[in-house]
Write a structure and sequence with these properties.
Layout lengths: L22 E8 L4 H13 L2 E7 L8 H7 L8 E4 L2 H10 L3 E5 L5 E2 L11 E5 L8 H6 L2 E3 L12 H20 L1
Parallel strand pairs: 1-2, 1-6, 2-3, 4-6, 4-7, 5-7
Amino acid sequence: MKKLAHDAIPRVAPANIGEVVRFPIVVLLEDIRSAHNVGAILRTADALLVREVLLAGITPGGDHKGVHKSALGAQDFVPWRRIESTTSEIKHLKTLGYTVAALEITDSPQPTESLLIGAYPICLVVGNEVAGISEATLNECDFALELPQLGVKQSLNVSIATAVMMFDLQRRYRTLTQ
């Protein structure tokens, strides 16, 4: 085993990013307070070739200085846009054939292993670091996905939870399409 030098790591050339086929996953961030969390999510979205990141409410945009600090340039390669209304955007995505999943602790979570190919394209809705997803938004979601946690706190940082779920959604999609 040999560690790769930075310039030896296989990657998409920035000039070719527009030609890359992205995975049918959209991430909708509702009222995320921390620019650092948004930057970390954008960085993971770049790593996974997520289709788009939607920013709602108080969520800082990809042009925010704090987002730049943790995104390390990913904000320039991941399609992102601000939306006016989370519930309106969810309704619109559903007309385009998206399934909408809340990343939230609920009384009836669904494991990603139960997702079938018909669940894609999928929009993963992620909520505020403290309050989570608003009730109005949760009511628009088709189901909830939850990360099983075994510890005392039952709490992960929102960027960590989102990253784990994005990886799991991509893994499931790749399994279903092989």
